[in-house]
Specification:
The structure holds 3 protein chains of 3 kinds. By secondary structure, chain A is mainly α. Chain A has a single domain, classed as MetI-like fold. Chain A is 79% helix and 0% strand. The longest helix of chain A has 34 residues. Chain A is globular and about 70 Å long. Chain B is mostly helical. Chain B has 2 domains: 101 residues, no CATH class; 215 residues, Orthogonal Bundle (MetI-like fold), CATH 1.10.3720. Chain B is 70% helix and 2% strand. In chain B, strands 1-2 form a two-stranded antiparallel sheet. In chain B, helix 4 packs across helix 6. By secondary structure, chain C is α+β, with helices and mostly antiparallel strands. Chain C folds into 2 domains: 232 residues, Rossmann fold, CATH 3.40.50; 114 residues, OB fold (Dihydrolipoamide Acetyltransferase, E2P) (Beta Barrel). Chain C contains 8 helices and 20 strands. A 6-stranded mixed sheet of chain C has the order 6-7-8-3-9-10, sandwiched between helices. In chain C, helix 2 packs across helix 3 and helix 2 packs parallel to helix 4. Chain C starts with a strand and ends with a strand. The chains are: A mainly alpha, B mainly alpha, C alpha+beta. Chains A and B meet through helix 1, helix 3, helix 4, helix 5 and helix 6 of A and helix 1, helix 10, helix 11, helix 12 and helix 13 of B.
Chain lengths: 266, 393, 353
């Protein structure tokens, strides 16, 4: 069923404009990050890597990058293990209130981050966790883990429960069945969840703002501070590098998605 | 199967504990803090006990004066007077000075305290200060929840609106609601034709277009907001282009205006509207349209009576997601918005860090949660399903 | 003196605490036999199998394997092989890895695993398929691998849950022969679940016919076909004409249209309402029927040609749907014609209504 030619032209025109609107700011940042001067003007008056050099040599940016990756890696590990285990548990268990439990576990997704952050700050202050690396990782894990949970649960929907029964009938105790049959079959979902968890932690700003100690700057926190303080193209170099990370995450998640759909449609 | 359920419980427990301990209990504590009233009970326990037996008529007995003088001096000594002073001052401006002055007078005050306190500050001779001190005894208060809606409670307990020049929060909530609704409306209106077009494009163009939506979806909110911050500067590329095209005579101040906030929010949230709509539309069977055509429906009728109703769940999901994220968004408005035109989130952050008034931060959080909850409930009722989240704000 | 391998004692199963899927089941499985649980869907046969495998817990009662109670033993410690309808081959493993799985779980030596895998593949006639993925095999081949996998760790008992349900007719018959051969060769006890009565008759030493959570009849294929215990069994296994009637005396019955029918002595009191079941292939047709017991004339309503036989729909005994099967060599009458028929006395099965 084709649309009227005029309608089609109009729709495609609108779509092109909206997509351009979505992409333009990011492309502008990438271009401006190569600016030879502190002036951020378009079109650029040359190409230089001085802001990248600045980024890679300035102590605070290097430290922020390191912090970001330490927190993101720890968060990803914790969120992936906890989220995968819980998803498998939810799939295995036969009890009432599963839907409620899933809602509860994914509540951090629909709760305003500022409320989550403020609440964690209150509670972590009481527990002496505020300002610690452990507190920051826990905080990031809370908002990252629902993605893992949902990704793994979605993959488990296509997992044949008879495979578990088969494993049991062949003598495999439950933990062996999970490690040798479930996990190898749902790994694309686990990996997709892990990628999302990593991206979430790397981009997370609001919770970091409240939970991080005075010296604990992550990349987003450093960017925010720098923007408010004094805007230099170094920020744009940082933004471009983060943008590059997002592209890698996107590619990874699409590759995993293709893999898991191919698996379910032999 | 009991054994399987044990295993399942064992697998779920760690995550449940994490979410309970790090999220549900903290959020619960926040909600509790919005109504909790502990400062007076902690700092002035004896005063509170005496006032609890006071009938509120005339002035309290001499023991109350004695207790307040002794306990205020003691908490000042222990450097813990800040909390109770701030708490009482929030009840009525000026009470901080009253408490501090009395505490500092300390040893110089002599019995009968009823006379020496009134001599120090005439407000001790008025019933109001005592009534407010009595009411602040806890354990619960409606002070913060009322104040977060621009209401206050007089010494006599009557609820009234605060003075016009102090009103702030009603406007704040209306502003937050309005900006969020505006952003949601713009996002839905822009997203629908885009989702429709992408769903009907042929491969590989559909993948290319979808990737152009996914790229911003995956990139950091802060990166995108920073981009707008750079683009919208007075000397930035947008102003440069507008002046260059002759549309403006001189660069305009865009940063710090509501336009900047709406622009950045739409940009950040648009993918969240497009993706759910697109996913619903790609699952729509084209044979419905063929069937409608075979039954005599023309293009407009096919769209209005078949495609639109079938794609509405995607619209509801996308719209709800955008609204939820807009209401709770801190980064974008904080960065590109003006200090006088901020949203609820900004005030929560300010009460947390600058004013250290956790009661107000908690009360505003409670209202914000209620708003989000209402939207989720409404969407559930309208679509009969859950809101599929995918937020990284 | 038969050797009992599995014993169900008063086993009941309910999912919601009220409706019972399996009710007070008592069943002995003999060592080395091929027992089929046959019944319509929802009759409790699969639940019975799942309880034996350990995937479901009985609500009450006990299950014993070689005299030891097993209903509290987790499935992975029961040592019972299971073949599933959808094969349940692990998609992330090759055929050989699938076969090696139960052996490696049992920490068997590598060389031993290799030999056994090889042997198992030969047994199901798939040598050289070890390196393939299950997805690369046809349905029939996958089910052979699943069968080999359930047998490779030498269980005493193998359960098969409608293993041929997803295959087409020709493949199904081929695999039935295969299963029979393997059963005879290994002497392993097999419990087989199916809703296909022809399959049950082909394969089984004994058949347990299930309906609404209870065993209706347990016996050899011949016994359940020739001497059904009740109308359900008569109706579920093989085709039959059902007629309502009333007992006249020790051998005679009055049909609804007023005619009488003679049967073998049934021992039911006169006046009792009964249900008659008459197999279509037992009815005699044509001139040969004249003068026999229960001889009558009936009009042919419809003739359906089915290759090896023809089905006639007759107007008889007050019904218009009285079905008779006519072997191929007999002359096929025209619709509308009137023919002779006779119902042998021994073929009138009488059940209390």
């Amino acid at each position: 069923m084709r649309d009227h030619p005029l309608a089609r032209r109009l729709l495609r025109g609108t779509t092109a404009l909206v997509l351009a609107f979505l992409m333009a700011p990011m492309l502008a940042v990438v271009v401006l990050s190569f600016s030879p001067t502190e002036l951020m003007v378009l079109p650029p008056r040359g190409v230089s890597l001085r802001w990248y050099e600045d980024f890679l040599t300035a102590g605070r940016w290097v430290l922020a990058t390191r912090n970001s990756f330490v927190v993101a890696i720890a968060t990803t590990l914790l969120a992936t293990v906890l989220g995968t285990a819980a998803a498998i548990g939810l799939q295995l268990g036969r009890f009432r209130g599963k839907a409620l439990l899933v809602t509860l576990l994914t509540l951090p997704l629909v709760t305003p981050y500022i409320v989550t952050a403020a609440s964690m700050y209150f509670a972590y202050s009481l527990a002496g966790l505020a300002g610690s690396l452990a507190g920051l990782v826990l905080g990031h894990t809370v908002v990252a883990v629902p993605f893992v949970l949902m990704a793994v649960l979605a993959t488990l929907q296509t997992f044949d429960a008879n495979l578990l029964r088969a494993a049991a009938s062949l003598g495999a105790p439950p933990w062996a069945a999970i490690l040798r049959v479930v996990v190898p079959n749902i790994w694309p979902g686990i990996a997709a969840g892990a990628v999302f968890a990593f991206a979430t932690s790397l981009d997370e700003f609001v919770i970091t703002l409240f939970l991080a100690g005075p010296g604990q700057f992550t990349l987003p926190r450093q960017m925010y501070a720098s923007v408010r303080e004094f805007l230099t193209p170094t920020i744009l170099a940082a933004a471009t590098l983060l943008f590059l990370c997002s592209l890698i995450f996107l590619l990874a998640s699409e590759a995993l998605r293709l893999r898991s759909t191919r698996k379910t449609q032999p | 199967m009991r054994r399987t359920n044990w295993l399942a419980a064992l697998l779920i427990a760690p995550l449940l504990l994490l979410i309970l301990g790090s999220f549900l209990v903290p959020v619960g504590l926040t909600l509790f803090r919005a109504v909790a009233d502990r400062e007076v009970a902690v700092a002035l326990p004896d005063t509170r006990a005496v006032l609890a037996g006071w009938d509120g008529q005339g002035l309290p007995p001499e023991v109350a004066f004695a207790a307040v003088a002794r306990e205020l001096a003691a908490v000042l000594e222990a450097r813990r007077i800040g909390d109770v002073a701030q708490r009482m001052n929030f009840e009525r401006t000026g009470l901080r000075t009253l408490l501090l002055r009395t505490a500092r007078a300390g040893d110089r005050l002599r019995a009968p305290y009823a006379e020496s306190l009134v001599a120090l500050d005439a407000r001790w001779g008025q019933r109001d200060a005592w009534l407010m001190l009595q009411r602040a005894g806890g354990p619960f208060t409606s002070l913060y929840l009322l104040r977060a809606m621009d209401f206050t409670r007089g010494p006599d307990g009557a609820v009234s609106q605060v003075a016009i020049e102090e009103r702030l929060f009603q406007t704040l909530f209306l502003r937050t609601l309005w900006v969020s609704l505006l952003v949601t409306a713009i996002c839905v209106l822009l997203a629908y034709p885009v989702a429709y077009t992408i769903a009907r494009l042929r491969a590989p163009w559909s993948s290319v277009a979808l990737t152009l939506v996914l790229i911003p979806f995956w990139s950091s909110v802060l990166v995108r907001t920073t981009a707008w911050f750079v683009l919208l500067q007075r000397e930035g590329p947008v102003n440069g282009a507008l002046v260059g095209l002759g549309l403006l005579d001189a660069p305009a101040q865009i940063l710090g205006t509501r336009l900047a906030v709406v622009l950045a929010l739409v940009h950040v949230l648009l993918p969240f509207a497009i993706l759910p709509m697109h996913s619903v539309m790609t699952r729509l069977d084209a044979t419905y349209l063929r069937a409608a055509a075979s039954l005599g429906a023309n293009g407009v009728q096919r769209f209005l009576r078949v495609w639109l109703p079938l794609s509405l769940p995607g619209v509801a999901a996308g719209g709800a997601m955008v609204f939820l994220l807009a209401v709770g968004m801190y980064t974008a408005p904080a960065l590109v918005g003006g200090d006088r035109d901020q949203m609820v989130t900004w005030f929560i952050a300010n009460f947390m860090t600058r004013d250290v008034n956790w009661g107000m931060a908690a009360a505003l959080s409670a209202y914000l949660l209620a708003m989000s909850g209402a939207v989720i409930a409404l969407t559930r009722i309208l679509t009969g399903g859950t809101v599929q989240a995918g937020a990284r704000a | 003196m038969t050797d009992v391998l599995v014993r169900f004692r008063a086993v009941s199963k309910s999912y919601d605490g009220r409706a019972k899927v399996v009710e007070e089941l008592n069943l002995d499985v003999h060592r080395g036999e091929f027992l089929t649980l046959l019944g319509p869907s929802g009759s409790g046969k699969t639940t019975t199998l799942m309880m034996l495998a350990g995937f479901e817990d009985p609500t009450s009662g006990r299950i014993e394997l070689e005299g030891t109670r097993i209903d509290t033993v987790p499935p992975h410690r029961r040592g019972i092989g299971v073949v599933f309808q959808n094969y349940a081959l692990f998609p992330h493993m090759t055929v050989a890895e699938n076969l090696a799985f139960p052996l490696s779980i049992r920490r068997m030596k590598r060389e031993e695993i290799a030999t056994r895998t090889q042997r198992a593949l030969e047994m199901v006639r798939l040598p050289g398929f070890g390196d393939r993925r299950p997805q690369q095999l046809s349905g029939g081949q996958q089910q052979r691998v699943a069968l080999a996998r359930a047998l490779i760790f030498e269980p005493k008992l193998v359960l098969l849950d409608e293993p041929l349900g997803a295959l087409d007719k020709q493949l199904r018959e081929e695999l039935q022969a295969e299963i029979r051969r393997i059963h005879a060769q290994l002497g392993v006890t097999m419990v087989y679940v199916t809703h296909d009565q022809a399959e049950a008759l082909t394969l089984s030493d004994r058949i347990a016919v299930f309906n609404s959570g209870r065993i209706q009849q347990l016996g050899t294929a011949e016994a359940v076909y020739e001497h059904p215990a009740n109308p359900f069994v008569a109706g579920f296994i093989g085709e039959n004409n059902r007629l309502s009637a009333r007992v006249l005396d020790a051998t005679r019955l009055r049909l609804e249209d007023g005619s009488t029918l003679e049967a073998a002595p049934h021992g039911l009191p006169p006046g009792m309402a009964v249900l008659l079941s008459i197999r279509p292939e037992r009815v005699m047709l044509g001139p040969a029927a004249q003068g026999l017991a229960n001889a009558a004339r009936a009009r042919v309503e419809e003739v359906v040609y089915l290759g090896d036989h023809s089905r006639l729909r007759l107007m008889h005994a007050g019904r218009t749907d009285f079905v008779v099967k006519l072997p191929r060599q007999e002359a096929v009458p025209q619709p509308g014609s009137v023919i002779d028929l006779a119902i042998p006395i021994a073929s009138v099965m009488v059940f209390p209504a």
